[in-house]
Design goal:
This protein has 189 residues and is α/β, with parallel strands linked by helices. It has one domain (2-187): Glutaredoxin, CATH 3.40.30. The chain contains seven helices and eight strands. The strands form two sheets. Strands 6-5-4-7-8 form a five-stranded mixed sheet. Strand 2 (57-60) and strand 3 (66-68) form a beta hairpin. The longest helix has 15 residues, at 2-16. The radius of gyration is 15 Å and the shape is globular.
Length: 189
């Protein structure tokens, strides 16, 4: 319970970097463990720095289906934490453009967007407005963002096929070339 409340407090601080505060529901702590669950014990080598094994988690997608990060083991993953902020609004079309050409740029690579702390209907509207076709997961109370120590939104992790974090981008991408280059490097690991 204390860890969940700490996660909610951290999430409030994290969202301030987006110049947007989202009030958390008073009863959020009671639901957070069932909707967003870190799935690893604190094992040696598991962490959120370059060279660490990315912490596994489970989150619902926008259709209500549960997804685990480990479901994508064996494939490179771009893991993008975002919310409805100005930087994310600028970055999402760039990520979508990369995703639309992923089989050319980095075949087999998975792009996962993790929305932090927004209502599912708001996320669905955002996804439809921007025409996003890659998988979007819902971290409704910021539990996984806290687990990943996200301090700035957006933040993107580049995870290789073995689950090892190869690179981290704090802040938005200015164009698709940087993402494509990082994905090409990621695919070679």
């Amino acid at each position: 319970m204390v860890r969940t409340l700490t996660a909610c407090a951290v999430c409030g601080v994290l969202l301030s970097s987006c110049h947007q505060m989202v009030p958390l529901a008073p009863s959020a702590a009671q639901f957070a463990p069932t909707l967003a669950t870190p799935l690893h014990p604190k094992l040696p080598g598991v962490g959120t720095s370059v060279g660490d094994l990315a912490p596994d988690f489970q989150l619902p997608d926008i259709n209500g289906q549960m997804a685990h990060l480990s479901d994508y083991r064996g494939k490179p993953v771009l893991l993008n934490f975002w919310t409805y902020c100005a930087a994310c609004k600028e970055e999402m079309p760039i990520i979508q453009h990369v995703y639309s050409n992923i089989e050319i740029t980095a075949p087999g690579t998975i792009i996962l967007g993790v929305n932090v702390t927004q209502e599912p209907d708001q996320v669905q509207q955002f996804v439809q407005y921007y025409g996003l076709t890659f998988d979007i997961l819902l971290d409704r109370w910021g539990t996984i963002a806290s687990e990943y120590y996200i301090r700035q939104i957006p933040t993107t992790y580049f995870i290789d096929k073995n689950g090892i974090i190869q690179d981290i981008q704090a802040g938005q991408f200015s164009g698709s070339d940087v993402i494509k280059k990082k994905l090409t490097e990621l695919a070679s690991h």
